[in-house]
Design a protein that fits this description.
The chain is an all-alpha fold. It contains 4 helices and no strands.
Length: 120
């Protein structure tokens, strides 16, 4: 089976893992958050991997870098929402720290990808 270029990106693979983790933790959120924070977190996390995938299909490096910037922005949105979820006691300190470490790792990789895209 053919693999598209985005599927070969380690940062895309990592961002896909983030989506799975977000889905797991939001399953335990209060039912009142189904259309609130839970939904926002899920959509923002999916946006990270989706923008990395979409950017890989663009023709110019500048356009690719733009989608990397959007992916990074969505990642920061996830971080904000994870902080709020933790402060509302929706997640444990351990889950918070694990997700935060994953976000930090992905952010570093997105920044490196963007830098490469702009320098080519």
């Amino acid at each position: 089976m053919h693999k598209f270029s985005f599927e070969k990106l380690i940062v895309w693979q990592d961002s896909k893992e983030l989506v799975k983790e977000i889905y797991k933790i939001t399953n335990d959120f209060p039912k009142s958050e189904t259309y609130g924070l839970s939904s926002q977190l899920r959509r923002a996390s999916i946006s990270v991997s989706s923008n990395l995938a979409e950017g890989s299909s663009r023709k110019t490096n500048k356009d690719k870098a733009n989608f990397s910037t959007i992916a990074y922005s969505s990642l920061i949105e996830v971080l904000n929402q994870i902080i709020i979820a933790y402060e509302l006691d929706y997640i444990t300190i351990q889950k918070y720290e694990n997700i935060r470490a994953l976000i930090e790792m992905i952010s570093n990789k997105i920044n490196a990808l963007r830098k490469t895209q702009l320098n080519n």
